[in-house]
């Protein structure tokens, strides 16, 4: 299975590089207008109109190969059995631990939130000013 994936990936990369090269070699639609008025751009290896057909068709074939290889890679990528723990990559992620505080961060007091507060516990006071920045705007 790995050999097939490697071959398909290599064909996809070669077709992508071929498409890039062919697209850069082709001239735009506006270049034909300059050739009509004698700019000398009409003389080419394949003739006046032969290069457009050859390069366009070759680009289309390479685009089709690239598309088929992309679909094959997506199909083979989904054939792998999901892990026993679940289908998500995040399920197997290691928990993040906080690093030890050093420098200025060590001076900030940390209060742990109680897991089960009794009913008679004091409630934190509500701030008098709203938490928006409206109080920061100077008035005239």
UniProtKB/TrEMBL annotation:
<dbReference type="Pfam" id="PF03840">
    <property type="entry name" value="SecG"/>
</dbReference>
<dbReference type="GO" id="GO:0005886">
    <property type="term" value="C:plasma membrane"/>
</dbReference>
<dbReference type="InterPro" id="IPR004692">
    <property type="entry name" value="SecG"/>
</dbReference>
<dbReference type="GO" id="GO:0015450">
    <property type="term" value="F:protein-transporting ATPase activity"/>
</dbReference>
<comment type="similarity">
    <text>Belongs to the SecG family.</text>
</comment>
<dbReference type="GO" id="GO:0009306">
    <property type="term" value="P:protein secretion"/>
</dbReference>
<dbReference type="GO" id="GO:0065002">
    <property type="term" value="P:intracellular protein transmembrane transport"/>
</dbReference>
<keyword id="KW-0813">Transport</keyword>
<dbReference type="GO" id="GO:0043952">
    <property type="term" value="P:protein transport by the Sec complex"/>
</dbReference>
<keyword id="KW-0812">Transmembrane</keyword>
<keyword id="KW-1003">Cell membrane</keyword>
<keyword id="KW-0811">Translocation</keyword>
<comment type="function">
    <text>Involved in protein export. Participates in an early event of protein translocation.</text>
</comment>
<protein>
    <recommendedName>
        <fullName>Protein-export membrane protein SecG</fullName>
    </recommendedName>
</protein>
<keyword id="KW-0653">Protein transport</keyword>
<feature type="transmembrane region" description="Helical">
    <location>
        <begin position="54"/>
        <end position="76"/>
    </location>
</feature>
<keyword id="KW-0472">Membrane</keyword>
<keyword id="KW-1133">Transmembrane helix</keyword>
């Amino acid at each position: 299975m790995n050999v097939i994936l490697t071959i398909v990936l290599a064909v996809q990369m070669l077709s992508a590089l071929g498409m890039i090269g062919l697209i850069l070699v082709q001239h735009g639609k506006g270049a034909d207008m300059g050739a009509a008025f004698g700019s000398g751009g009409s003389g080419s290896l394949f003739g006046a109109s032969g290069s457009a057909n050859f390069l366009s068709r070759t680009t289309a074939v390479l685009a089709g190969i690239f598309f088929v290889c992309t679909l094959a890679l997506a199909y083979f990528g989904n054939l792998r059995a999901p892990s026993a723990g679940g289908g998500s990559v995040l399920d197997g992620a290691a928990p993040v631990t906080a690093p030890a505080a050093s420098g200025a961060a060590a001076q900030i007091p940390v209060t742990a939130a109680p897991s089960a507060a009794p009913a008679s516990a004091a409630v934190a006071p509500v701030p008098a000013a709203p938490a928006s920045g409206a109080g920061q705007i100077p008035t005239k």
